[in-house]
Amino acid sequence: MSEGCRPHVFFNVFRPYIAGWDSKPFKKKNLKGLIYEGVSKEPFNFTGLSAAQSSTLPCLDAAFGVVHKEKEDKSRRFFQDYMPKPHRDLIAAITSGPSIKDYIHSSDSPESLETYNDCLQAMKSFRDSHLQIVTRFIINMAHQKTGPGSSSKGATGTGGTDLMTFLKGLRDSTLRAMLRTTRGGDGEDASEHLVPTATPPGWVRGDVKRALQITLVFVAAAAGTMLVMRKFSR
């Protein structure tokens, strides 16, 4: 995104088109939504596009046992209503399925624990990068309109979330999910209260071919997004 689109183009040209009916400009005009002819006589009022509507990170959160605080989790569940039903079903299946975290915690394997924490660290780094992009493309651009001394608190995404509070909360939850190298202590780590499992979940090993197919889908989606962003940045 940083290579294919300039912040002022994203904020002023592209972003208004992905805002929802709950965005400030629509609220000021008291617009109630959009009537879809042949579907309903009443207007539909949908929120805007948000990265939280993607099922990728929620699936990873579910797989690695990342538990978010109530406020962030409420927003995440709200955005899941905008996902295709098979995506929601997948998240639910992973959430209710065998726990990787339980298995790692009960395995007494330093190597497995280190690998598990490395995965969470990678997720944390991804969320850090997302925060940096949001700061550059949204927060800083909003400050140019409201003044350099304005606060980022209350700045909303196109999905209506309080951006920095929401994203920092997700990042911090990822850190809290990491397992200690030694057991015991009074920290926030939920691993102290886990119920051990006897065997590793079979789906953790996965199907390499299916994993490659899924990866290719994500790469294709990312490439398509970059092409759109480059078109708007010209």
TrEMBL record:
This is Uncharacterized protein. Keywords: Heme, Iron, Membrane, Metal-binding, Transmembrane, Transmembrane helix. GO terms for cellular component: cytoplasm. SUPFAM superfamilies: Indolic compounds 2,3-dioxygenase-like. Coiled coil: none annotated. Gene3D superfamilies: 1.20.58.480. Heme b binds at residue 130. GO terms for molecular function: heme binding; indoleamine 2,3-dioxygenase activity; L-tryptophan 2,3-dioxygenase activity; metal ion binding. Belongs to the indoleamine 2,3-dioxygenase family. The keyword Iron applies. One of its GO terms (biological process) is 'de novo' NAD+ biosynthetic process from L-tryptophan. The chain crosses the membrane at residues 211-229. Pfam families: IDO (PF01231). InterPro entries: Indolamine_dOase, Trp/Indoleamine_2_3_dOase-like.
